[in-house]
Design goal:
The chain is mainly beta. Helices cover 4% and strands 55% of the residues. The strands form 5 sheets. The protein has a 5-stranded antiparallel β-sheet. It has a 5-stranded antiparallel β-sheet with strand order 10-19-13-16-15, with no helix packed on it. The chain is globular and about 50 Å long.
Length: 223
């Protein structure tokens, strides 16, 4: 991990967290269960944590389960919007460089549409999130999103924003480096960002522009 070697050198030999974006996967189908086949997980390692962001468009469903290669993920944070929810989840997955990721939704007044996920690998962390936050702007178009959070020295963060209805893209994220800006089908647009920090911040400012029907979720990791 060349990037991690640089971080260790900058930190005076202290092993630093290394967050690596792996990919985005979407479907324009209407379904309660989405299977994303052979999603990349990055290099296998005994300390590897997989972080998954998942979202859908339309209706008030909730997450029933998310598995990576059959391993059930643990929820970090979900947004508080009444519709088209988004989640961040994590779990230690030490083996394999790819796996099927299966997301199942339940409840609600209709079937989810345009399900999607994004995947990051986290190396050299304690194995559990250091902090998390969320902000939802479901109807107002004049209020910026703020999901700032604490990040320790030699740590890092992941940020994810989505817009669950048609009509435009998701808000841009500030406070981390953009990993993607993509759409899944006709009604789900999303962005993801991450950053590794040699010097932590309490809090690290992570914000997104004011756009209605959007949400911003964040999580940080420490060594």
């Amino acid at each position: 991990m060349f990037q991690n070697n640089l971080l260790m050198a900058a930190a005076g030999g202290v092993k630093a967290v290394d967050i690596q974006y792996q990919g985005l996967f979407g479907s324009d189908a209407s379904s309660r269960t989405y299977t994303y086949s052979s999603a990349p997980l990055g290099d296998a390692a005994t300390d590897r944590i997989i972080v998954v962001a998942c979202a859908y468009a339309n209706y008030s469903n909730t997450l029933s389960s998310c598995t990576v290669g059959g391993v059930t993920m643990t929820q970090i944070v979900t947004d508080t919007s009444p519709n088209a929810k988004a989640y961040l989840l994590y779990k230690a997955v030490a083996t394999g460089t790819s796996a099927d990721i299966v997301v199942t939704w339940t409840g609600g007044s209709g079937t989810p549409t345009d399900g999607a996920i994004a995947v990051w690998s986290v190396y050299n962390s304690t194995g559990t999130p250091y902090a998390s936050n969320e902000d939802t702007n479901y109807t107002a178009s004049s209020v910026a999103l703020d999901a700032s959070l604490n990040v320790p020295n030699n740590g890092g963060l992941i940020a994810y924003t989505s817009r669950g209805l048609s009509g435009g893209g998701p808000p841009a994220i500030t406070g981390a480096t953009e990993d993607f800006d993509e759409t899944a089908g006709a009604e789900l647009a999303q962005r993801g960002a991450s950053i590794n920090l040699a010097i932590g911040e309490s809090p690290r400012s992570v914000t997104a522009a004011a756009i209605n029907y959007s949400r911003l979720l964040t999580c940080s990791w420490g060594p």
